[in-house]
Design brief:
The chain is of the alpha+beta class. It is 40% helix and 13% strand. The protein is built from 63 helices and 42 strands. A 7-stranded antiparallel β-sheet has the order 25-24-23-22-28-27-26, with helices on one face. The N and C termini lie far apart (139 Å). About 18% of the residues have low confidence.
């Protein structure tokens, strides 16, 4: 029961405290005057009576009524009902104005009477608005109408009226003024009473807006209502609170806020406040308040406020049902025959229906919440915590922002504390959320069913407020109309008699004391929990598809693990790790692992332990930090159970390997875990005590307890019911038991937390590193921090005895974290202070002890061999290659190439685990794939260290358990990319050392630091010499050279070399090395020319003779451009001579020593001419067309003319115009000399008139020229481009006219017009004068020049030479293009739609465009030369593009260069001798590092590859040969492609060293020697389709569409790495052959062999037919014990045999090579090709023929076709006295084997080899040890069918060797030879 009204007061206008029109109210009277003890009098009521301020008004206002709500300090609400009316006052201002007449003019006319407000106020704790309105109205009526009842009686009755709070009873009251009212109490106090306020709210604001406010209120935002009506503000606030049920609003709640208190709105806490619209303007600047205008129906949200709305589909469904309630017509608005009446329900009913919708909504939101309550204490008071994470996880609502916020909110905390207790009175919501779950779930989809349910709920709610339909009659007087009108004369409201009222109150109080207490027992009961959550979710189908199969895999894997079937388990592992992404599989994993734990322990071996840890990590890695799926919770007991034994009695538990997860550092997780464990223990505690009792009294709940075991909540409710019946002792005993249970769990958790928070290596603070511990107290308290020590941790730390012990950060931070945890949970669960203190002192000790055990484990784990990791495989090294850094364990990560990643089918080869090795030559990765299905494969990726172009750090996240530190991405210009991630065992400083070493090796100080020089030396990093910087800029270098040259020209020898050859190379300087073979130069020189012998020192003479020996010289002789004899004596009949002007490299450093120049030009002229050209590279002849005798010249571009030009030239002549003219004249003379050397010119010389010139020329040009003429024109146009043709310029005849007309040549012939005989001035448009077009004839010499540089060249007056300007690709362009090409061919990461992006990247790289340009120019030059004109290529510095063009021209024009010999000669001559800057362009040293890698030579090889593709029958070498060169020109394995010119090579002493004796024969210094050797062994470089036409000139198509991407850029062989280091291939095969024998235990082996595109070498796995036949032949010969021939001999024999066959058949055919190749559709040649019909016989022929001719002695005469191979003599032949095959008996029980024996007289030994080709000696018999040679006898196991006399024995001091020759004759020969050797000695 409660008082209807606590206080009654009268508040009036305070006349004394008026401030400038702002009045104040004051309490005139209040009853009772003393405060009630149970509800103190609320302060500040005056403000609320007039919220807009106390003011006097000129006219009487109608009386008003509203209810304000005040909240006291105990957050109890007081309802203040204010009834306000207006009383007249004499206006005090009017009286004052009469006195002061001076101001009369200004004064506003004031009315004589004003009205002041007066309020009657009731303060109550009950909310009965209507009753209050009636009561106050009655008091006013009594006063106004002057009724006879004294007011004291009415007020006294009102204050003494007592009514029940709830229970649904009706109470009739009367105040003694003839009135009667019925007060209706609600049935259930917990349900809010709303009247029709909710419906009103929806009407005012609409559905969406109210839902918006609803979500805002639940998620704790600030809400402000505006309205001009106070009562509406109160109602709106009340309505909003009503729909929030069952949650209660616990923040600031002020439905009516007085204007004076508006600053409350800027409070930081959430609120719901109502304010009169009068103050609207003052609410505008509130930035974070949602404003709802009730009068206007709008809700405005500031920009900075984000409101989380209800999750879909709930939001949609709620809106639908609400609109059905509020607007039933909406649904049938479109019906053709709408029902007659579809009115919405009455307002009161509608109100309940809306509330029904929200109840239904909350039932859905909170369903199953009771299953997530943890009860941690039952006695004396239940303590309950809600496990938010589990709730969200089981409802799978973790992503839902709204729900997260609601569950974190204050309202929900209140909900848990109010509704958590299991034994209490229940209400409508409890019933709904527990018992209607199934119904609600079925209704979800159907709004009409929902509507029916809502109506049922509405009925219950309505009945709660109005239990009795028939309400008794109200009778309340209202003021009569008359008294309202007569109010003018009304007397003021009288003061009441205090004593009379107080008497009433006292009387009532005394009555109450004597009255018996009203006992209404509360009906408490057990709160139903509803169905558990798990069932709900599974029915929703949130289970992964195909999960049964996945769970099966997880179970099998774990079974295999514990049965120790490790191989099986490892195969399943990847599938398991994939399955563990799903929740079901994770749960399954924890359940399965649980079964293998016995007595809290499970001891594993290393491999098992590793796998289990890996699974655990995988399971945990997707856990969020709050662990909503409970996986971490389930694993927590397991990580402390699984362990492995280590040495020295230590045990390592799984927890030390699974710490890398966020969840362990989250406070919320630990709290939830702690509470759930406490709950289990307390449950167990009471189950034990109950079991004893229950045996005595069998009062089990029937049926209910059987199905499911009793939950903790049920138990608690039972205990709470019994609590009052227990004795005091029992009660305290139970409280103590519970308390100590909690305490022991706290200790347990302190231990557990230290396990998971202290890292294995306590020196590294993992906690502080991984989790952002900077944000100290985060909202969820989830991080361990450094700075919390403030409160409790410090004080306890110091008490523990560990201050001096290593108080590492780790220990401190962990102690603080655990302390905070313990404080929180113990305070919440009521642990006593003594216990809490004990805990705080224990924690530092626990942590310290754990650190000590961990240190031991850490030490042991370091000692343990890392068994679980795969063994590091050693790479095979080349002879002379040495490891710089031993293998570091890394993971090779897939890059953008798809083949190895398994995306194109098959298991992924990458990522792979292995090691990276750094050797002096290469960078090698060798390892095995992670995927166990291909775990036995070996993955190798390597590239030469010299080809590294870019290294970059990357960070790597691999889905493996190892914690990977960092990664490197290494890119090489051999089109290889390694992305490696260092394993955790590699220290970071080691990775740095690795990078440093890599840099040192990549960019040595000097070329001598490269592998080609250091090979075979000690592996210490090469000591750098203190030489001056070799890479000065070239200009200064050339200046110095010219100076020294000037000094020495008179003496004709070069002074002391600038660099002495390095001492660590061969000790002898290179001169002495060369003394061995000196070729004397013919001495028949004219005395007029310089004789070498007379003017040069002997060393120079040797140098000279070596220069003569160089490749260029051999080639010049072949081409007839001067012979050795004529190089010194100028025979006049030769047009060209070999000049020695540059023999000391003084004229041009970068040219060779011997140069071809016109016969008529003396050396002095050359020295002058060279200054006009850049780098002094003047024009020299490099090739002559044997048919047309046209020559090809090369030079650099001209220097820019003018003064600047002369300053540029290194040797500035004395100034003066004459000098300059003379130089250019001599230049012209030089060009003229070249032209006159051409036979076509000499025929026509003498006729200098134009007409004669033309006609002669036309007559001399042969028919082939005429045919080719137009083609050249077209080519020219292509090369020079005609994009800029200007219409209207010249286009008169002439094949160049289109170009000329474009005005392009204007710059190059400024003085043509003046020097021409014909009078013609240059054209106004800057085009050349017309005389140029008068004749259509070709020039004798075309100069191909760079557009940008041709400004200075003079045009010949008779146009005997002509300039062709072209655009050259700049070196920078090539560099950038190559970078893009590498990225296209070897992308760093997978991109979507791979093909598209590859082609796009390829196009963007413009590599093909550059190839096209070079090929185009080359084809043009070929055409010009072929038509009889000479061509001078004069581009850039003459060493990049010039070299490319000149080499390609020779390759296309001359078949010789398409053979092995010729191609080598071409490269040596044009690239090496003519000074292509290999070192500079390849960035081979530290000095050239900045210039970057520019693959000019690679571009050339690509061009050759393009030509090879189009003419496969014209090249003797294969595509592999080109790839081989492309690889090794950057690999620095050979010295061939090092240094920038012959001069530098001589200076270092590497140019002629090959002639000297070889110190280490196994190390090839020249790539050519290596290729020669290899070519003898294997036909890999040979092109079987080689079948050249005589004198064939190739003209390839050069358009982009004809060019193909070279497969060199794309292919890779992961099984063995690049195949270009041939020794490695052989070794790997040998190793591979040895291994299978052991493993051959299994069943029958399959014949199938899978060939993977990126793993296997296709050419090895599937060789071409001929290679295969040759291999078969070799193996057959080996079986028969015959010497196997060189493949080349076999091949040539067959070829000749086939040719003779073909001649006999007299059918047109060509060589057999075609018979093997089928894809000739795309060859182009000038003659037609007929294939031989009888193609069948060739292969059989091949084998038969070979068997017939194979003999034991080497074949003497070779077939004529192999002329090219005549020079391939064995290098060892000088010291081989006698050789052949002998069978040798092995040691004990070993068989006889054929070996190739060599008797060496010089070394006095008998050596034997596997076969004739073999270079590695298998054994040596020293002849000094031989005692005798005797005829022998046939022994056991000797070869069959061999006569007795073929056996002989060799007796040495150590043993007897048994030999067997082919026949007796052969044996006799051998015995004699050995005997003669012995006697010689």
């Amino acid at each position: 029961m409660a008082r209807l009204a606590d206080y009654y007061l009268v508040v009036g206008y305070d006349l004394d405290k008026r401030v400038e029109g702002e009045g104040q109210g004051r309490i005139l009277q209040r009853f009772p005057e003393k405060d009630w003890e149970d509800s103190p009098f609320p302060q500040g009521i005056e403000l609320f009576c007039q919220p807009s301020g106390w003011q006097l008004v000129p006219e009487r206002q109608p009386a008003s009524f509203f209810v304000a709500v005040l909240t006291d300090i105990n957050s109890d609400r007081h309802y203040c009902a204010c009834f306000t009316f207006w009383e007249g006052l004499d206006n005090p201002q009017a009286e004052a104005s009469e006195v002061d007449e001076a101001d009369e003019v200004l004064a506003v006319v004031q009315p004589a009477q004003v009205f002041a407000p007066k309020s009657l106020v009731l303060v109550s704790r009950l909310d009965h608005t209507e009753v209050f309105r009636n009561c106050l109205g009655l008091i006013y009526t009594v006063h106004v109408d002057g009724l006879t009842v004294p007011l004291e009686t009415v007020v006294g009755n009102l204050l003494t009226c007592i009514i029940p709070i709830a229970g649904g009873s009706q109470r009739t009251i009367t105040l003694g003024a003839g009135d009667r009212q019925v007060i209706q109490t609600p049935i259930d106090d917990s349900l809010p009473v709303s009247g029709s306020t909710v419906a009103q709210l929806f009407r005012q604001l609409g559905i969406v807006n109210v839902l918006y406010l609803f979500c805002a209120a639940l998620t704790e935002h600030k809400i402000l209502f505006l309205s001009s009506s106070y009562q509406r503000l109160t109602d709106a606030c009340r309505g909003l609170l009503a729909i929030m049920f069952p949650l209660k609003y616990s923040f600031t709640y002020v439905p009516i806020l007085p204007g004076k208190l508006l600053e409350v709105l800027s409070t930081p806490t959430p609120f719901i406040i109502g304010v009169n619209s009068f103050f609207r303007s003052e609410t505008q600047e509130l930035l974070d308040v949602i404003i709802a205008d009730l009068d206007g129906g709008t809700v405005t949200t500031p920009e900075c406020v984000h409101i989380s709305l209800l999750p879909e589909p709930l939001l949609q469904q709620t809106q639908t049902v609400l609109s059905m309630v509020l607007d039933p017509e909406l649904e049938i608005a479109d019906h053709a025959f709408p029902p007659l009446s579809t009115q919405p329900s009455a307002l009161k009913i509608q109100d309940k229906e809306i509330r029904g919708v929200f109840l239904w909504l909350f039932a859905r939101l909170f369903q199953g919440y009771r299953w997530c309550l943890h009860i941690i204490r039952i006695h004396p008071e239940p303590v309950i915590r809600f496990h938010k994470a589990a709730f969200l996880g089981q409802r799978s609502l973790t992503e839902e922002d709204f729900l997260m916020k609601v569950l974190d909110g204050m309202a929900f905390a209140g909900f848990v504390s109010e509704r958590g207790p299991p034994y209490r009175a229940t209400d409508l919501f409890d019933d709904l959320v527990a018992n209607h779950v199934e119904r609600i779930r079925q209704e979800e989809a159907c709004p009409h069913k929902v509507m029916n349910h809502v109506k049922e709920l509405a009925e219950q709610l309505f009945r709660n407020e109005n239990p009795y339909p028939a309400v008794a009659m109200h009778k309340v007087q209202r003021p009569s109309e008359r008294s309202q009108n007569m109010a003018q004369k009304q007397s003021p409201f009288p003061a009441l008699d205090d004593v009379a009222v107080q008497l009433f109150i006292d009387h009532a109080a005394s009555k109450l004391k004597t009255a018996p207490p009203v006992v209404k027992a509360e009906v408490k009961g057990m709160v139903p929990s509803g169905p558990p959550l798990g069932d709900i979710v599974d029915r929703n189908g949130n289970v992964m598809a195909n999960s049964a199969r996945r769970l099966e895999v997880v179970r099998n894997c774990i079974t295999y693990l514990f049965e120790n079937k490790m191989l099986e388990a490892k195969k399943l592992m990847p599938a398991v790790l994939r399955a563990l992404k799903g929740r079901a599989a994770r749960v399954c994993l924890t359940q399965e692992l649980n079964q293998h734990v016995l007595q809290n322990r499970a001891v594993l071996d290393d491999q098992q332990f590793d796998c289990i840890v890996r699974m655990m990590n995988c399971t945990l890695q997707d856990c969020s930090h709050i662990d909503e799926q409970g996986i971490a919770a389930a694993l927590l007991p397991l990580v402390t159970a699984f362990c492995r034994k280590m040495g020295a009695g230590t045990t390592q538990f799984a927890y030390s390997c699974v710490q890398e997860h966020m969840v362990w550092t989250t406070m919320q997780f630990w709290e939830a875990m702690f509470y759930s464990d406490v709950q289990n223990h307390i449950r167990a505690l009471y189950l034990e005590t109950d079991e004893g009792e229950q045996q005595n009294n069998h009062e089990q709940q029937d049926g209910s307890g059987d199905g499911r075991e009793i939950s903790a909540l049920d138990l608690a409710s039972e205990q709470s019911r019994l609590w009052p019946t227990l004795s005091k002792e029992m009660q305290t005993e139970r409280v103590q038991k519970e308390e100590s249970t909690v305490f022991s769990q706290a200790i347990h958790y302190a231990n557990r937390m230290s396990y998971l928070l202290l890292p294995l290596d306590t020196s590294k603070n993992r906690l502080l590193r991984t989790t952002g511990l900077a944000d100290v107290e985060s909202v969820s308290n989830s991080y361990v921090t450094n700075s919390i020590a403030g409160s409790m941790a410090e004080s306890y730390d110091t008490e523990s005895g560990f201050e001096e012990a290593e108080s590492s950060d780790v220990a401190n931070s962990v102690v603080r974290f655990i302390n905070r945890f313990v404080d929180k949970v113990c305070n919440e669960s009521g642990v006593t202070n003594e216990h809490l203190k004990a805990l705080h002192t224990m924690i530092p000790d626990i942590v310290q002890m754990h650190i000590e055990t961990l240190d031991a484990v850490h030490r042991e784990s370091k000692r343990m061999p890392p068994t679980q990791k795969s063994k590091l495989l050693r790479p095979t090294l080349l002879p002379g290659e040495e490891l710089v850094m031993d293998g570091m364990r890394v993971h090779l990560i897939p890059d953008g190439r798809e083949e190895a990643t398994g995306l194109m089918g098959g298991p992924p080869l990458l990522p792979a685990e292995g090691a990276i090795f750094l050797t002096t030559y290469r960078l090698i990765f060798k390892g095995t794939p992670h995927d166990p299905l291909v775990g036995e494969k070996v993955v190798t990726r390597s590239f030469p260290i010299a080809s590294l172009t870019k290294e970059k750090r990357i960070s790597v996240n691999l889905a493996i358990d190892h914690y990977i530190q960092e990664g490197l991405q290494l890119r090489s210009c051999t089109f290889q990319l390694m992305k490696i991630a260092f394993d955790e065992e590699v220290a970071s400083d080691l990775a740095e050392v690795f990078k440093k070493h890599m840099h040192k090796l990549r960019y040595p100080q000097h070329v001598q630091g490269t592998f080609a020089f250091t090979v075979g030396q000690c592996s210490k990093m090469v000591v750098e010499h203190k030489t001056k910087d070799k890479n000065q800029s070239l200009k200064t270098l050339s200046k110095n050279l010219v100076k020294t040259a000037k000094r020495t020209i008179g003496r004709q020898h070069v002074t002391k070399k600038k660099y002495s050859p390095p001492t660590w190379e061969n000790r002898s300087s290179f001169q002495s090395e060369l003394d061995e073979d000196v070729i004397s130069v013919s001495e028949e020189a004219d005395q007029s020319s310089l004789t070498l012998s007379s003017t040069m020192r002997s060393s120079d003479r040797q140098t000279m003779s070596n220069v003569v020996e160089r490749a260029c010289c051999r080639d010049y002789q072949r081409l007839g451009l001067g012979t050795l004899s004529s190089s010194l004596t100028r025979s006049k009949n030769e047009p060209f001579r070999i000049s020695t002007v540059n023999r000391m490299y003084t004229v041009c450093r970068s040219y060779p020593g011997l140069l071809i120049v016109p016969q008529s030009i003396p050396d002095t002229t050359i020295q002058r001419i060279c200054r006009c050209y850049r780098q002094n590279r003047f024009p020299v002849v490099c090739w002559r067309n044997p048919r047309t005798k046209a020559v090809l010249l090369r030079s650099a571009g001209l220097h820019a003319k003018g003064v600047v030009g002369f300053f540029k030239s290194p040797n500035t002549p004395s100034t003066g115009p004459s000098q300059a003219d003379s130089t250019s004249l001599e230049q012209e003379k030089y060009l003229q000399a070249i032209i006159s050397s051409m036979p076509s010119y000499s025929e026509s010389s003498g006729r200098n008139t134009l007409s004669g010139f033309t006609s002669t020329h036309m007559s001399t040009s042969d028919s082939s020229d005429k045919l080719r003429q137009p083609k050249i024109g077209a080519l020219m146009k292509q090369v020079m481009g005609t994009k800029e043709d200007v219409p209207g310029t010249f286009s008169r005849g002439g094949k160049w006219s289109s170009i000329r007309g474009s005005g392009r040549l204007s710059a190059y012939n400024p003085d043509v017009g003046t020097r021409l005989a014909v009078k013609e001035s240059p054209q106004p448009n800057g085009g050349p004068s017309e005389a140029l077009f008068l004749r259509q004839q070709k020039a004798y010499l075309y100069i191909i020049g760079d557009k940008a540089q041709l400004k200075g060249g003079k045009q010949d007056s008779f146009q005997q030479w002509e300039v062709v300007p072209i655009e050259v690709c700049d070196v920078r362009q090539v560099k950038n293009s190559f970078k893009k090409l590498m990225k296209a061919c070897v992308p760093t990461s997978l991109t979507p739609e791979h093909n598209v992006s590859f082609l796009r990247c390829l196009e963007e790289s413009e590599w093909m465009v550059l190839l096209h340009k070079v090929l185009q120019v080359s084809v043009l030059v070929v055409a010009l030369l072929d038509s009889g004109s000479s061509v001078m290529v004069s581009l850039e510095d003459g060493w990049d593009v010039t070299t490319q063009v000149v080499s390609l021209v020779q390759l296309l024009s001359d078949p010789y260069y398409r053979t092995f010999d010729g191609f080598r000669l071409l490269v040596e001559k044009e690239w090496l001798s003519f000074g292509h800057r290999f070192s500079h362009r390849g960035a081979q040293t530290l000095g050239s590092q900045s210039s970057g890698f520019t693959p000019v030579f690679l571009q050339f090889l690509d061009c050759v590859h393009q030509i090879h593709l189009q003419f496969p029958m014209e090249f003797e070498f294969s595509q592999y040969y080109l790839k081989f060169l492309a690889y090794h020109y950057v690999s620095n394995r050979f010295r061939t492609f090092l240094l920038d010119s012959d001069y530098e090579r001589i200076e270092l002493g590497v140019l002629y060293e090959e002639k000297g004796e070889r110190k280490s024969p196994q190390v090839c210094k020249s790539v050519w020697d290596y290729i020669d050797r290899l070519n003898k062994k294997t036909p890999v470089f040979y092109n079987y389709m080689f079948s050249p036409e005589d004198e064939e000139v190739l003209r390839p198509y050069t358009f982009n569409s004809n060019l193909k991407v070279w497969d060199f850029y794309m292919e890779e062989t992961l099984s063995e790495g690049p195949s270009y280091d041939w020794e490695l291939r052989g070794r790997q095969e040998r190793v591979a052959e040895e291994t299978p024998e052991k493993a051959d235990s299994g069943g029958p082996k399959s014949q199938r062999h899978i060939v993977w595109p990126c793993y296997d070498s296709l050419s090895k796995a599937v060789p071409d037919a001929i290679t295969k036949l040759l291999q078969d032949l070799q193996s057959l010969e080996a079986e028969l014990g015959l010497t196997s021939e060189k493949w080349k001999d076999t091949w040539d024999k067959i070829k000749t045999a086939q040719r003779t066959e073909a001649k006999l058949e007299s059918k047109p055919s060509f060589s057999s090579s075609l018979l093997m190749s089928s894809n000739l559709s795309h060859q182009r040649r000038s003659q037609r090709v007929y294939l031989q019909e009888s193609a069948g016989g060739s292969s059989i022929n091949l084998t038969l023929d070979c068997e017939a001719t194979a003999t034991s002695t080497p074949v003497a005469g070779r077939p004529s076709t192999s002329t090219l191979y005549s020079q391939f003599q064995s290098t060892e032949s000088e010291n081989r006295s006698f050789e052949g095959i002998l069978f040798k008996k092995g040691a004990m029980l070993k068989p006889w084997k054929p070996r190739w024996f060599v008797l060496d007289k010089t070394k006095h030994q008998l050596r034997y080899y596997e076969s004739r080709q073999d270079k590695e000696c298998k054994g040596v018999i020293d002849l000094a040890d031989v005692e005798s040679v005797l005829a022998g006898t046939s022994a056991m196991g000797a070869p069959k069918n061999i006569e007795e006399k073929a056996f002989f024995d060799l007796k040495t001091t150590k043993r007897v060797y048994n030999f067997c020759a082919q026949d007796s004759l052969n044996a006799q020969l051998w015995m004699d030879s050995v005997q003669s050797c012995l006697s010689d000695a």
